[in-house]
# Entry
Amino acid sequence: FWKFNHSFDIVVPIYVGYIINSGETVIQDRTIYEDAEIFAPNLHDMGLMSTRDFENYKALFNLMIGLVKPPDLLIYLRASVPTLVNQIQQRGRAYEESIRLDYLKMLNERYELWISKYTSSNLLIFNVDNLDFQNNPEDLSKIIDNVNSHIHGLF
# Structure
């Protein structure tokens, strides 16, 4: 674990410095919140991360969160476990084939709990169980229009 911690000593200041000083618009498909609020606690609860390492990780997260501006808009794609399984199968990534249903269910529950308490910025939630924005241009257009109205207002 020392090597992992040591890599954070190098990477975190570079990443945070870039985000803070770039002046650029940044679009991310993941946030720093997710790892700290969903994945790390899940690993800890599964016994795959020690309490010491988890506490160190949370301390690092709390330091970073004080340095990084929250997003202007957080977009949450809500999906049921069956939808998640279908998406995983469609991607066809070999390393995802062994993901267990109970693990997906646990992560999904953690995501829902986290998003229900999220107050750091504007939040837009799409239920993707009934949307196919990859293959249906009308669904994609609805999402884009909704995002644009949240970013730029009605007109």
The two ends are 51 Å apart (CA to CA). The mean pLDDT is 82. The helical segments are 2-21, 32-45, 51-65, 81-91, 101-117, 137-152.
